[in-house]
Amino acid sequence: FSINQMRTINEFIFGSPSDGAYVEYEITGNPEEDICTLWVKSGTEEMKFWNRSFESIDMDLTLSEEREYREEILDELRLYYYDLNKIASYYKEQSYKYVDVASNINQYTEYVLTSHSWEVYMSGQSKENNERTSELYRGMLNSGREVSQFCYDNGFEVGPTSLMNADELSEFYDQVMGLED
Predict the structure, then answer these.
(1) What does pTM read for this prediction?
(2) Does residue 21 carry a pLDDT above 90?
């Protein structure tokens, strides 16, 4: 996304900058609408936008100030996922057909928040950290695929690659990049 597109997405998800942080989502009574509308408003993209903003600003911060700043950013993303989990949990209580989607959203949330945590950010480039990051990413892809499939089955438009699991996506990228014959 360009900066302008990201600003548009930012305003769509979180309201205009003057509105402050993310506004709590209300349950409408239509499970697919509630779950999938929030799912397609990707909180992960919002986090990437703020991370890029942070990295592009030449700020003279101490380590504790940087940690505090990053935690504030992550707290906004937590609010988004809190709503998503709350809605999925609500509908899970109403019908067994939402149990799997609620479980996958919960797993996805845990993977995303862990992967953006201060601890992972500060872990650096070690073999163990790279393996852990890779495992978190695979978990995000696999749990995210299940929720995207649910939304797709209910008539929501999703990106084609969002319907692939981690192995399928890796194979697809290998083919596109010409790494596999």
Answers:
(1) 0.74
(2) no
